[in-house]
Automatic annotation (TrEMBL):
Protein name per the record: Cyclodextrin-binding protein
Keyword Aminoacyl-tRNA synthetase in record: no
Pfam families documented for this protein: SBP_bac_8
Region (Disordered): 24-51
Keywords per UniProt: Signal, Transport
Record's keyword annotation contains Signal: yes
Signal peptide bounds: 1-22
Entry's family note: Belongs to the bacterial solute-binding protein 1 family.
Top-level division of the source organism's lineage: Bacteria
PROSITE patterns: PROKAR_LIPOPROTEIN (PS51257)
Length: 437
């Protein structure tokens, strides 16, 4: 106790000296004391909280922004956090795109949230704009406790920024009432089943996916060794969307027109979801965020990870999105904000989040939790997440989407695969060069 008192006294003196020298600067809280202290809490923190907690600033209050889907959990965890630490927390409804816009004005005006919630593909812009602080105090714990893909997604140029919350990707939803005992273990199985099931007059299809977005079609590239950018999606000079593996994968993709004789414009989210819900689509490549909705249909729905592509020994990689909490650069109470972000992403907290919202936790080892273990589709989603990679966050990614979409449209309509992909990569390189000028 005497040792702890001396440490706290030293911290108090150090903070006081720093405050005297900092004056009234609006960013005076951004460099608040980061030293660890013997503050283990009262024992009722969620399991997985760091053994040594950061010391929050005296008199701290916090504001958190998140979209509507994240508010029910945040409101509950905020109450727990306030009860434990005595730090008031206010939660406001603010969508991700609006958060970045508001940070530009509300940050300098000292009205911005202390913690914001963003998809990882917005992180590059947030870092470039100077909106978020690194996750430095809990860096080691975050890297050890979260899925590698999630950690990678909230890292920019080697610096960890985010406190990962949940991950999203896609897999195969199966209407078991339609498929019956037919095994669906390979793409060959999918093709063979669809040929026997399709009834175009009745608007019934064995398999369906969105066709012209790189997000949904990426497994056809990655399943044979294709990729977007080299060096773990950080080297924009190395584009792999027209390499040998990509060409092979897109030739297989093109062959699926035999079992899905539709214009690509007719495979939208709304159409595909409606067919699946009405029992007219048997196998649906769709997002894991639909697990809740598809669990309540009148027919039995299961889900499986994507099988290997024909003739390939590689697991097809899906693109993943990662939602995470970030501490604002403008926060007057960065220590308290970091403590809240950590508290809200502990094992116990993310399990509560899953039970309230259905968000699939980005933490490792969550598949052993009874609430998750009992849900077959969530287990399949976690399995697919092991074979996923976050969408690239480098700014050059913005030049990729449209050229690839145009190439996919041409390929689906029967144009030469290699020629179409070469043109897409040429356009991407031109876009990047123009962007860099």
């Amino acid at each position: 106790m005497r040792k702890g008192f001396i440490i706290l006294l030293a911290l108090t003196v150090a903070i006081a000296i720093t405050a005297c020298g900092a004056g009234e600067s609006t960013n005076s809280g951004n460099k608040a004391n980061e030293s660890k202290a013997e503050n283990k809490g009262s024992g009722n923190a969620p399991t997985g909280a760091a053994d040594e907690e950061i010391v929050p600033e005296e008199g701290a209050t916090l504001l958190v922004w998140d979209g509507k889907d994240g508010l029910p959990f945040l409101e509950e965890i905020a109450k727990e956090f306030t009860a434990k630490y005595g730090i008031p927390v206010k939660v406001e409804d603010q969508g991700a795109p609006e958060q970045l816009e508001k940070m530009k004005t509300d940050g300098p005006a000292e009205l911005a949230a202390d913690i914001i919630t963003l998809p990882h593909n917005d992180l590059g812009n947030a870092v470039k704009s100077g909106f978020v602080l690194p996750n430095d105090y809990y860096e080691e714990q975050t890297k050890a406790e979260f899925l590698p893909a999630a950690v990678e997604a909230v890292t920019v140029e080697g610096m960890l920024y985010g406190y990962p919350r949940n991950m999203e990707t896609y897999a195969l939803f199966i209407n078991q009432d339609l498929v019956g005992d037919t095994p669906i273990n390979s793409w060959e199985d999918i093709v063979n089943f669809s040929k026997g099931f399709n009834d175009l007059k009745e608007n019934k299809y064995g398999f369906m996916s969105q066709l012209t977005s790189l997000y949904w079609t990426y497994p056809f590239f990655s399943g044979y060794g294709g990729y977007i950018f080299g060096n773990k999606e950080t080297d924009a000079a190395d584009i792999g969307l027209n390499n040998e593996g990509s060409v092979q994968g897109l030739k297989f993709f093109q062959s699926l027109r035999d079992i899905l004789p539709m214009a690509s414009a007719d495979t939208t989210d709304d159409i595909k979801r409606s067919l699946f819900q009405d029992g007219k689509l048997a196998i649906n490549l769709d997002g894991v965020w639909n697990i809740g909705a598809y669990s309540n249909l009148k027919h039995k729905v299961t889900m499986i990870p994507l099988p290997k592509m024909p003739g390939s020994d590689k697991d097809p990689i899906t693109l993943a999105g990662v939602k995470a909490y970030y501490v604002s650069t403008y926060s007057k109470y960065p220590n308290a904000a970091k403590l809240f972000a950590r508290y809200s992403t502990s094992k116990e907290a993310l399990l509560k989040n899953f039970e309230i919202t259905g968000f699939i936790p980005a933490r490792t080892g969550m598949d052993s939790e009874p609430a998750i273990q009992s849900n077959e589709m969530v287990r399949a989603a976690l399995k697919q997440l092991e074979n996923s990679q976050p969408m690239p966050t480098i700014i050059e990614m913005g030049q990729v989407w449209t050229p690839v979409e145009q190439a996919l449209e041409l390929i689906w309509n029967g144009e030469d695969v290699k020629t179409s992909l070469d043109k897409a990569v040429e356009d991407i390189k031109t876009g990047i060069a123009t962007q860099d000028q």
